[in-house]
């Protein structure tokens, strides 16, 4: 049966027109990108300083120059000017930054019911009455025996997973990074594998706690009198005493409707295995030429002494401070990216998303829905109707691109994150253009527009299914204001900001009401 076109139009996901401000990177060499209106016309969702703050910085440009000169002469970055005078940098952010402590690039979140939790029964109208049959002989005693056995087993498993989680957390906490001994990407991938092991343990713990509560609630329900059914059931009598009316409980139905399933655990383990495969492709050995790192971090040199002081003060510093220090201690401009990357590597050891205030984020639980909800053009019908949670297990055209998002999770430098995502966007553009040509579009008409690109980005993020990736996007977008003369990074960070905002605004319940078949 063909769907009514008006109904299909009503159900289609629309993208905020305010996001349609720049052209996609269809032709990298000829690209011209204006200043994104996403940042100039809208309230900034993730930047650490307002436009008023930035104007103060511009007014006090000389302050930065003085700070830089002081560092060059004194090698002590604590010679920064005091904040007694109006307009100086410390006054831009009078409230101390609340940064998340880090034991890994991304640490497990607190156990609690989140958007992507594993619970089955979200229907508040579902009651135990629905699994009871008062016309059959009661199986009350057998049900209690079964629930007692399950409770004993679950409590044992709960203790087991709590112990495993604690031990794995201890292992991860003592795993530290030494730039002279370890390749950082390998180190981060190892910690991410531990992170997903802990996340799987936490999911087990969540499910067991939830199931124990559900079983206890069923037992309480069965222990209650049910006066409303007294007229429906002929009461049995024993020794002249009336027995309580007990229903027949369909226990198979109880487990299906009221207990959690393990699909989300399997998905977490699947991500862990993908990370292990990615880690196996990396070398654990540090880069061959470490002479510059040894010299740069040595206390015999000014750079090493300043970096050591920086490490102890990372929690109180902003990236404005870091930029001043970088420019003062980097011998040549071409070495700046290398020095910056090393500082971010060291900062991640102490704080997640250093020098920013990136919020904890979770992908909305719409993984049982399919790419059809975002209407990406030119995608084949099979892929359009395959749920997100199994999409990357198929050979759909964008599988490799989606799995490349793993590389964002093992990167520490937000500017490098933007470069990696630029390559991902370029790959998406190429694949989608090829699909358009195969569908009959003329090559000159096959360029991917912003709306189509944005839809594909949404699809690959949900096919990837790892919440931490949107935290990395938000983290990178913080640094938009530090980009000069680099339209590629500006383009990417604009998309980061748009994706994070759009995804955080998704109401999973509303999407299920609108799109679930």
Specify the overall morphology. Answer: globular
The secondary-structure class comes to: mainly alpha
Q: What is the number of beta strands?
A: 4
Rg on CA atoms, Å? 28 Å
Profile the largest sheet: 2 strands, antiparallel
Ends apart, CA distance between termini: 14 Å
Question: What do you see in this structure?
Answer:
The protein contains 21 helices and 4 strands. It is mainly α and 517 residues long. Among the domains are: 139 residues; 61 residues, no CATH class; 146 residues, Up-down Bundle (Glutathione S-transferase Yfyf (Class Pi), Chain A, domain 2). It has a two-stranded antiparallel sheet with strand order 1-4. Strands 2-3 form a two-stranded antiparallel ribbon. The longest helix is centred in the middle third of the chain and has 40 residues. The N terminus is likely disordered.
């Amino acid at each position: 049966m063909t769907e009514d076109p008006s109904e299909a139009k009503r159900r289609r996901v629309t993208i905020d027109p305010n996001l349609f401000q720049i052209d996609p990177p269809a032709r990298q060499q000829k690209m011209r990108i204006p200043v994104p209106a996403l940042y100039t016309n809208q309230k900034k969702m993730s930047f650490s300083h307002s436009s008023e703050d930035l104007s103060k910085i511009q007014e006090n440009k000389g302050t930065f120059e003085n700070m830089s000169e002081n560092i060059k002469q004194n090698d002590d970055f604590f010679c920064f000017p005091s904040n007694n005078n109006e307009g100086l940098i410390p006054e831009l952010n009078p409230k101390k930054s609340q940064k998340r402590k880090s034991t890994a690039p991304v640490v497990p979140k607190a156990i609690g019911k989140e958007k992507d939790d594993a619970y089955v029964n979200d229907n508040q109208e579902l009651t135990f009455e629905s699994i009871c049959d008062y016309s059959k002989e009661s199986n009350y005693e057998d049900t209690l025996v079964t629930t007692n056995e399950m409770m004993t087993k679950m409590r044992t498993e709960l203790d087991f997973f709590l112990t495993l989680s604690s031990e794995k957390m201890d292992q991860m906490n003592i795993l530290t990074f030494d730039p002279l001994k370890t390749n950082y990407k390998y180190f981060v991938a190892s910690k991410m594998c531990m992170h997903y092991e802990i996340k799987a343990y936490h999911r087990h713990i969540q499910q067991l706690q939830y199931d124990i509560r559900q079983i206890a609630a069923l037992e309480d329900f069965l222990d209650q009198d049910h006066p409303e059914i007294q007229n429906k059931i002929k009461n049995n009598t024993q020794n002249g005493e009336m027995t309580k009316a007990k229903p027949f409980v369909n226990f198979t139905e109880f487990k299906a409707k009221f207990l959690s399933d393990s699909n989300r655990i399997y998905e977490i383990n699947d991500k862990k295995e993908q990370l292990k495969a990615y880690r196996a492709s990396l070398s654990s050995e540090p880069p061959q030429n470490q002479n510059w790192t040894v010299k740069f971090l040595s206390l015999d040199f000014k750079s090493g002494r300043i970096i050591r002081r920086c490490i102890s003060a990372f929690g109180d510093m902003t990236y404005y401070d870091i930029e001043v220090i970088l420019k003062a201690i980097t011998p040549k401009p071409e070495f700046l990216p290398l020095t910056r990357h090393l500082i971010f590597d060291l900062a991640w050891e102490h704080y997640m998303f250093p020098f920013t205030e990136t919020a904890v984020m979770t992908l909305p639980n719409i993984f049982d829905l399919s790419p059809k909800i975002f209407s990406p053009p030119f995608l084949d019908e099979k892929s359009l109707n395959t749920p997100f949670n199994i999409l990357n297990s198929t050979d759909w055209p964008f599988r490799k691109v989606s799995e490349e998002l793993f590389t964002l999770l093992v990167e520490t430098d937000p500017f490098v994150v933007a470069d990696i995502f630029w390559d991902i966007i370029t790959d998406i553009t190429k694949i989608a253009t090829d699909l358009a040509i195969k569908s009959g579009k003329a090559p000159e008409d096959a360029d991917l527009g912003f709306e189509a690109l944005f839809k594909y980005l949404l699809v690959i993020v949900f096919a990837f299914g790892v919440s931490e990736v949107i935290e990395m996007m938000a983290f990178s977008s913080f640094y938009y204001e530090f980009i000069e003369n680099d339209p590629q990074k500006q383009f990417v960070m604009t998309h980061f900001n748009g994706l994070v905002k759009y995804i955080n605004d998704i109401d999973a319940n509303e999407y299920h009401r609108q799109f679930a078949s």
